[in-house]
């Protein structure tokens, strides 16, 4: 997608748009791009809600957009005219036999009336992410290394002994020429002229991460709440993919108990009963201990809830979350409140607020609608950029 040049100044009050400064063809092309971008942006919530694309690497999504034509004059069809000849007919007068009403389920007869049609455009997820990052002015994060390192073999130095596959022919020929300069009568080539490239093991910083997506799936979580949470999870994941070479998502759902699911099951599971957040934090700590050594993985946690939690669970939830915070790069709390005036004033929000006040690297975001998702994503990645620059 194309952004307007920053050097152009337009008077919006007079209706002048920045692409009016171009020729007719360029204006049409730029206006088309702008409308396509707007159509894709409007369809993103629906696409993310209906497709399992959170863990996608090179997935494509199809976006239906309305076909756009140039404005032109067109004669009104005869059946839409508001008068008959020079008579006194008015709008609403019956001028012929009333048409028979179709019965329910009856197929409509073929006709010759105009109908609209849509175009289906196919985009790569990465292309949409690039466009959205420009639209939201999100920072491009620098690759972040882990505490540990991976072993990597690199070429370093030469030796007179080695595997034939690593023979450096050019360097061997140079050694032979140097020897013959000193001793012109010597043989053309001897074994001591051979040089072999050596491989050594170097420690490289590990750029890998595990991202835990945890969500309250009790009966109080509505379908709207799930959709907003999925939107945030998706864009957070896509942004982190730009920072890490290897990234693994883990999906945890809970009510009074917690379970690990794959991606497709995670967004379909529904529970009933109460909400005990400590059950999710407990299973996350167990998974980290068993599968993801914090010295080798950067750890992220995003937890989505409507904010309600069993009051007697406050201490256990705080302890479990504090344990994760001690090893995690970031904790994100996504709340989908029942009403906007109660946003981030709930039991769970208070637990996260206490961690933030204690110096933990964490953030809380209230998701009211799709626009608040973009604001939350912008806030999260701006915090990450500030932390990287510090």
Provide structural commentary.
The structure is a single chain. This protein is an alpha/beta fold. The protein folds into 3 domains: 12-70 and 117-125, no CATH class; 149-204, no CATH class; 207-389, 3-Layer(aba) Sandwich (Rossmann fold), CATH 3.40.50.410. The protein is 34% helix and 19% strand. It has helices at 24-50, 125-135, 169-182, 223-241, 263-266, 277-291, 314-325, 347-357, 370-389, and strands spanning 60-66, 118-124, 149-159, 196-205, 208-216, 246-254, 258-261, 298-305, 330-335, 362-366. The strands form 3 sheets. A 6-stranded mixed sheet has the order 7-6-5-8-9-10, with helices on both faces. The protein has a two-stranded antiparallel ribbon with strand order 1-2. Helix 4 packs parallel to helix 9 (370-389), helix 6 (277-291) runs parallel beside helix 7 and helix 7 crosses helix 8 (347-357). The longest helix is centred in the N-terminal third of the chain and has 27 residues, at 24-50. The protein starts with 23 loop residues before the first helix and ends with a helix. The model is unreliable at 1-15 (pLDDT under 50).
Shape: flat
Give the proportion of residues in helices: 25-40%
- Beta content comes to 15-25%
Which spans of ≥5 residues are poorly predicted at pLDDT below 50? 1-15
The CATH topology of the largest domain turns out to be Rossmann fold
CATH architecture of the largest domain: 3-Layer(aba) Sandwich
What is the multimeric organization of the chains shown?
A: single chain
Distance between the termini: 32 Å
